[in-house]
Design goal:
The protein has helices spanning 2-43, 50-53, 68-75, 109-114, 129-135, 137-152, 171-192, 195-211, 218-238, 246-257, 262-278, 288-300, 307-310, 316-321, 324-364, 388-393, 401-406, 415-440, 518-530, 544-549, 560-563; strands at 63-66, 90-91, 96-98, 105-107, 126-128, 154-157, 469-472, 478-482, 510-511, 514-515. With 566 residues, it is mostly helical. The strands form 4 sheets. Strands 2-3-10 form a 3-stranded mixed sheet. The chain has a 3-stranded antiparallel sheet with strand order 7-8-9, covered by helices on one side.
Length: 566
């Protein structure tokens, strides 16, 4: 009897030990596979550490080294105007845009209609350039110093990228705000006929955008793309002016001739990989509270948990006793102690696929590939890149808790830079066309006439790798366009993709618009006045922590108790 009881006890002990052994083996196997994959990446020349990807100091002696708050103070020239400025290149029907600097007055509601602002307390009011001057009195006093700092001195923003998502980046809002202020000032200069000052402001805006080029974070490149879009609209407005000289336009063209957005965004993905992997699954980046929030998101993403598998096997009464918070806690414990190495490996593999696809698209000069990530079509990748692991990681699963939630936000991380590259090429070609017209008195019959005097080579369309589309119209104007995000030439269709947001930079084909004639602007003003009382509600504000990170709120005051000596 004793022998039988002892055998039973040993059997129960072994049965109890099996899950522990399995979980221990799962953890060790995950760490081994993770270490092996990291070695493979390093052998292929991939950079995996923050130190390798941190931007070096700029060369030269005239370099200011600033922290984020010093940079914010240096670049902050005041608020971002909405009501008092008519809005850059507002879309007015397909293929047409309003030239802001040609206006004498405008309705406040126009900004709401253009999508740049969605609220106005006084929608029926009209504004003039006198309102702009009054509202920007302080800002305009600071612009000469901003232009001097931007054009005559380099600065390096010293950040500790090891802080990951906790890193404060207040300088980014100052960068974008300064870009807006410079472009708005350029529009006023165009309105008053001061073309020399307009070029100075647009040149400073281009240099300011270039200062963010080495920024290693995705948010750096997103702000840079936004600044590029703002300046593109301002340059479109500038090209509607007369009396330009070729040196002025040549300077404007040179500012953007070598600018690329997609390669820098790919580099930023590498830093995102390094910063998130550095503490994986360390407490600093992955606190229990944060992981529980991620686990809760799995339900929103479509994960049904164990309930679907246990339905019909376990009584509903018992299933009902397992609440989502309890399940979240179970998932967090298992992920932190068992699954984290597996999740990190999947995260690295998936992000590497996305990075490789970006490099492939850039090398093929067909960035339309990057728009097919979320919904891949047969043959859409045009090459050996395979995103099978990436799409697998985006499926909600507790074992891949972090990858399931985070990677989905990166699906479209390269689409805006790709769109910006396409528009930059269109803009450069439009400047070259203006220079040709300035010299010869007419538009060229084909883009080949711009080479090599005004362009180094025939401009390509980054959406399909073919030359940009161009032809003369019967009315004496021209049609210049990229085939757009879908890569399909629709004959230069300027129809917006989203009717609710008729922005000409988001149309079926990326068409360089023609200026609206005064009669069209007057008709639009009458329509605006008729419906000025109907406005959308104000947009939701970012949460306090997010606003503080990007400098929209001041940092919290230090706790006196924490600073007191022990």
């Amino acid at each position: 009897m004793r022998k039988r009881s002892r055998k039973r006890l040993i059997a129960w002990i072994l049965l109890a030990a099996l899950p522990v052994l399995y979980l221990g083996e799962e953890r060790l196997r995950g760490e081994w596979l993770l270490a092996r994959y990291k070695r493979q990446l390093i052998a292929r020349g991939e950079k995996l550490t923050i130190e390798e990807l941190t931007p070096p100091l700029p060369k030269g002696t005239n370099v200011m080294i600033l922290d984020a708050f010093e940079a914010q103070k240096l670049l902050d020239v005041g608020g971002r105007l909405r009501r008092e400025f008519p809005g850059f290149a507002m879309a007015l029907g397909p293929g047409k845009a309003v030239v802001s600097w040609q206006r004498d007055r405008w309705f406040d509601e126009e900004l709401a209609r253009s999508g740049r602002a969605r609220w106005s307390g006084d929608p029926a009011r009209t504004y003039t350039w006198d309102d702009y001057l009054q509202a920007t009195e302080t800002t305009r006093k600071r612009l000469p110093d901003l232009r001097h700092q931007t054009t005559n001195q380099s600065f390096h923003i010293d950040l500790d990228y090891g802080e990951g998502p906790a890193l404060l980046l207040p300088h980014l809002s100052a960068f974008r705000g300064a870009c807006i202020a410079l472009c708005q000032a350029a529009a006023y200069d165009l309105h008053t006929g001061n073309l020399d000052r307009a070029i100075e402001n647009l040149h400073a805006s281009a240099l300011l955008t270039a200062r963010l080029e080495p920024g290693p974070l995705l948010i750096d490149q997103r702000v840079r793309v936004s600044m590029g879009a703002i300046t593109t609209e301002a340059i479109w407005e500038a090209l509607q002016a007369k009396r330009w000289t070729d040196p002025q336009l040549a300077l404007l063209q040179a500012d953007w001739q070598s600018v690329r957005f997609t390669p820098q965004a790919i580099n930023a993905l590498q830093m995102e990989r390094a910063t998130l992997a550095a503490s994986f699954p360390g407490e600093r980046l992955f606190s229990t509270e944060l992981l529980q929030a991620y686990a809760g998101l799995l339900w929103d993403l479509g994960w049904e948990g164990p309930f679907a598998a246990l339905e019909g096997i376990v009584p509903r009464k018992i299933l009902g006793s397992i609440t989502p918070p309890m399940l979240d806690e179970m998932v967090v414990v298992m992920w932190r102690h068992v699954w984290a190495p597996h999740d990190q490996r999947l995260f690295l593999e998936s992000l590497q696929e996305l990075i490789a696809l970006g490099h492939q698209a850039d090398a093929l000069r067909t960035l339309k590939i990057l728009f097919n990530i979320a919904d891949p079509q047969p043959g859409s990748l045009n090459g050996p890149a395979d995103l099978a692991t990436f799409h697998k990681a985006c499926q909600p699963e507790p074992k891949h808790l972090f990858s399931s939630v985070f990677l989905e936000s990166l699906e479209r991380s390269l689409t805006k830079p790709a769109r910006a590259d396409a528009w930059n090429q269109v803009m450069l070609t439009a400047i070259a066309l203006k220079r040709f017209q300035l010299k010869h008195g007419h538009w060229p019959d084909e883009l080949a006439a711009l080479v090599p005097e005004f362009l180094p080579e025939l401009p390509i369309d980054w959406m399909d790798g073919q030359p940009l589309r161009y032809r003369l119209r019967d009315d004496g104007s021209y049609l210049l366009y990229s085939v757009g995000a879908d890569g399909i030439d629709q004959g230069g269709s300027p129809e917006p993709v989203d009717e609710a947001n008729p922005d000409w930079m988001n149309a079926k084909d990326f068409v360089w618009p023609q200026p609206a004639i005064p009669e069209e602007v007057a008709a639009a003003d009458a329509e605006t006045a008729a419906r000025a009382a109907t406005l959308s509600p104000p947009p939701p504000q970012m949460d306090e922590a997010m606003m503080r990170r990007y400098g929209l709120l001041p940092p919290p005051e230090p706790d006196d108790a924490d600073d007191a000596p022990e």
